[in-house]
Amino acid sequence: MCGLCGLLGEQAHWSDPLGEDALWRRERARRIHAINRAIAPSRLSVTDFQGVAYLLQGATGRQQLASGLDELWRAAEALLGRALDPLSPAILDHLEAAP
Amino acid sequence: MSIPFNLVTGFLGSGKTTLLKRLLTGEALGDTVLLVNEFGEIGIDHLLVEEIAPDAVLLPSGCVCCSVRGDLKQALLELDAKRARGELPAFRRVLLETTGLAEPAPILATVATDHQLRGRYRFGLIITVVDAQHAVTQAALHPEWLAQVAAADRLLISKADVVDADAIDQLRQRLSRLNPAAVQALTTEIDDHDALLLDAGVHGPDPGGEVAQWRLFSPPKASVHGEAQVCCLEFDRPLDWMLFGVWLSMLLRCHGQRILRVKGILDVAGSASPVVIHGVQHCLHAPVHLAAWPKGERHSRLVFIVRGLEVAALRRSFTAFLGRAEHAL
To answer: Structural domains in chain B?
Structure first.
């Protein structure tokens, strides 16, 4: 836990980096970039929050904090009112247009 | 060290209880706790040595049989507490017999994701008993049957003595098409020492041996089986673990109900050893590193068993997120 702000660290998840901790920050930045590519067609964006959480923002400015990928997808669902579908043509067209 | 937790499932009347009753008379389950719904259902009165708690009895082999009165989490935490206090003999594994209509995924999720349970127990095997006599009818009428078969690590065929050899052969082929990675056996071939029942799968001492049995590298030709489909993705290039995690976690969140099983062995960029993943519906286990590639074949393969999901869209999505799959079968 962060002593200053009381934030708990990101929840352990099966998709966490398999290698050393030193890679963690770099992998986290890459992960946020990959998430943003996938959620951009839904007019959502993600930024890092203190290195321990994700700050998800919707098109209307609504925001939600999420700790870990599972929480992030749930938060996106809450903002959008539907699940983010990685099989949806809108997401796939977007990813294929700029591989 | 966490304790392996194996699930014995199967449709109503499939013969789970008959199998367990037979195994309980042997000695090899002496270091096992068997969780059941009700003692009455399993009929162990004649075996009973003593009641060691209101909901736990000791059998001659040393096996402790407990009934799950409330929720599973509470039952497992109580088991652990009783063992720590010396009220229960030490045990090396837990077997849970589910009710016939239970889908395995919620039970798996309880054990895999609960903060209190995660360090104490680890998920081992899903053992599904398949009734040879009624499999066709159950498959046609009950969606739970497919979920139980697809989720299985072991498929134990019961009542083989009441149907002919051809019917058994057809059932075996059908099960192979549905779940190519599960090991099959007849219940009559299983004894109380059988590793098919007592192992912990990839979370046991020999994960490489377990993965070698998955037959990921020899998939069935026919991939469509009624409403279920088997989708294999194979690729030669090392995989980006971070992109894979984003893709699969998003997929399982949205389509977990339709992904009955996923198993895979992955060549991950930056990792010398192969990484094994497997999960049921929304729930994915912690990845396991193997010491070496089975049969020396260094390439990634993922097998999905899906229901009501477009396989073409799944392949397209994988490629869009991670890059081109070299061979999509």
So the answer is: 3-205 (3.40.50.300), 224-328 (3.30.1220.10)
